[in-house]
Design a protein that fits this description.
Radius of gyration: 24 Å
Protein name: Transmembrane protein
Keywords: Membrane, Transmembrane, Transmembrane helix
Number of helices: 21
Organism: Companilactobacillus mindensis DSM 14500
Order of helices and strands: HHHEEHEHHHHHHHHHHHHHHHHH
Helix content: 55-70%
Strand order of the largest sheet: 1-2-3
Number of strands: 3
Length: 500
Amino acid sequence: MNNLSKILKSWCSKFAKRVSPAMFATILVAIISGIILFIPPIKGLGDNGDFYNVLLTNGLYRLPMHYNQLSDYVINKFGILHYYNENHFYTFTSQMISVKLAMFLNKLFYSRTVFDIRFMGLVHYGFYLGGIYLLTKSLVHPFRKVGSYVIAFLVVLILGDSAYTLFFNSFYAEAGMFVLIIYIMAAIMSLARDVYAKNWPMVWLFFVASILLVTSSQANASLTISLVIMAIGLVFLPGFKARRLAVAFGALTIFLAGVGIYFSANEEAVNANKLQAFSQGVLLENTKDPTEDIDRGGVDGQYSLIRGKNYYTDSYTAIKPSGAYTKKHLLKKINVGWTVHYYATHLKQFNNLLDVAATDIPNLQMKNVGDFSRNSGHKPRAQTRYFTLYSATLGAFYPGKYAFDLLIMIGAIGAYAVGFYLDNKRNHYYGIVRFFLVVGLMLALVYIPIYAVITGGEFNLAQRLFMAVTSLNLTILLFVSDIINHTLWHTTPEEDDDEE
């Protein structure tokens, strides 16, 4: 038994010298996600209607096909326009960068006329692996112990979940958002733990990734709040007193990027959001007829007939949601201010909607689209169960109450406030920088549901809560890693013989 123990210890020691925890996590997610993205049958996500603007803007189009239920199966191939695209800047977002890069690689290695969705997956996959490496290294630094490999495995379990990586083979903005928030957290934790000799590369990484994240979608404008709060922590880095102006400028740039992307939405998108916030928010979760309530708000009570309707609908409705009459007599009267005022006088209804949002927070895997291509032999909208243990467990046990989200926020901020207080007294900065990171993540968990309900009601609610659940998952990962490293409150790690 002693010999076996010695052999095992010797093997583990050799393994640790050759494979760091960061490399261990990167290799595992490369294999796990590579199988789902590139090994037939190809998996990804069907189109729920969000692809239209991305295709239009980037010179792509859907190839003719007999099957028109786009959400049932993953579409592998798209056509590439050969001539002038009049909609080139129909909607400008940072997502265009990844799409253009994927198109460049597609034309270089595959075809100049047909686009394969796997090149979209390849672009996301490459940046994703880099983010996993940086984040894992920042979470385990400066150790290379058994606990470090446990943390690396948790990174794989949580961030390698297929509910995340399925987005890579699609045109959903969530794929890029997921990769960027990994880089943002990796940059902050690397700065907090002095992983690298110079701070500036990670500071640049934080601000560039933050700006790209905010501008990846109009819905991400609200993330400005969290990212600016995270940036405040950088002011406390040593030797940064003379550079606080630069940090302030970076935070201002994030804010302006958020404002810019919010107001860049075209009129049709704004009208669609207004209508859905009204029909699938104001008119829902109300125990009585909403006609009188909206009438008192200055809106004709007849519009209660569009309750639960989408802006774009093929079915017959008494009042066409996207019609000119609706635009004139409804959409011009309602806006975010009107909706906020309505909910302020109907708090019970608003709380019910937030509880609905709370039940959707753990639903990371999109349920309204298929994960397989049509020739795979699977039924329409079939869902993969490959490496979904974490997301399935979270969905099964997470309470569907908004009050629970508030309790998590209070508990997490309270726990990390102790480290903030102790490090502030000792003139250390790790606990301070980390505290602002947690505050930013936890506020996102709480305010994103509010923002989602006000701006779009229950329409595609689970998808619009993507950054809320991702913020929760990153906080869980950070908390467990601090427990394993014994750095939750005692933020200065003890020296160890097996340091990197």
